[in-house]
């Protein structure tokens, strides 16, 4: 740029803090944050998804609360064994999760068609360390998906057990009826 008063050319700099050379030592350096992102599509493929698919994506609708829970984040960070987290006591761990993790973790549920029977879950995590951003988000994603799938698998196993018990009872009843005939 050209100064109108003296005709000197100068260039603007983008530093945070005082712009005089004497005070530049007090400038604040803001580290670059890397963002890791992932998207999961939650679908209900069962026959019992409810009328018009209204119950089909319930798991996706509550995903934000379950993914951002302190318990899940604590398990993920302990699995990754972050050294600065491991040496903290419980109240300090809570503050660490709140200030350093939850403030940098985003879980979004973009709008989906009303009766689509699915829900998209978008997660992102910001960190100054690109490896940490990726590994934390992968651990969190895997933890949530495995919990969700195992819960549904357990529900299906219970239904199967009940159905097998009912089938056995009906076969016994059928056998008794055949003996009477």
What would you say about this model in short?
By secondary structure, the protein is α+β, with helices and mostly antiparallel strands. The chain has helices spanning 58-61, 63-67, 70-80, 83-86, 90-101, 130-180, and strands at residues 34-43, 105-108, 118-127.
Provide a descriptive summary of the structure in words.
The termini are far apart. Strands 1-3-2 form a three-stranded antiparallel sheet. It is built from six helices and three strands, in the order βαααααββα. It is α+β, with helices and mostly antiparallel strands and 181 residues long. The chain has helices at residues 58-61, 63-67, 70-80, 83-86, 90-101, 130-180; strands spanning 34-43, 105-108, 118-127.
Descriptors:
single chain, 181 residues, alpha+beta, 3-stranded antiparallel sheet, 3 strands, disordered N terminus
Terminal Cα span:
106 Å
Biggest sheet layout: 3 strands, antiparallel
How many helix segments? 6
The overall pLDDT average reads 77
H-E order: EHHHHHEEH
The strand order across the widest sheet is 1-3-2
């Amino acid at each position: 740029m050209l100064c109108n008063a003296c005709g000197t050319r100068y260039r603007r700099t983008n530093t945070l803090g005082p712009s005089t050379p004497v005070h530049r030592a007090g400038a604040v350096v803001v580290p670059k944050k890397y963002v890791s992102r992932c998207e999961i599509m939650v679908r209900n493929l069962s026959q019992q998804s409810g009328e018009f698919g209204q119950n089909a994506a319930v798991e996706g609708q509550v995903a934000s609360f379950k993914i951002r829970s302190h318990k899940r984040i604590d398990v993920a960070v302990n699995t990754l064994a972050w050294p600065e987290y491991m040496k903290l006591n419980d109240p300090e761990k809570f503050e660490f999760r709140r200030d350093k993790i939850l403030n940098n973790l985003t879980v979004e549920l973009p709008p989906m068609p009303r009766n689509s029977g699915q829900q998209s879950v978008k997660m992102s995590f910001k960190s100054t360390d690109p490896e940490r951003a990726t590994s934390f988000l992968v651990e969190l994603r895997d933890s949530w998906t495995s919990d969700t799938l195992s819960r549904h698998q357990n529900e299906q196993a219970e239904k199967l057990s009940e159905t097998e018990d009912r089938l056995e009872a009906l076969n016994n009843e059928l056998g008794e009826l055949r003996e009477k005939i």
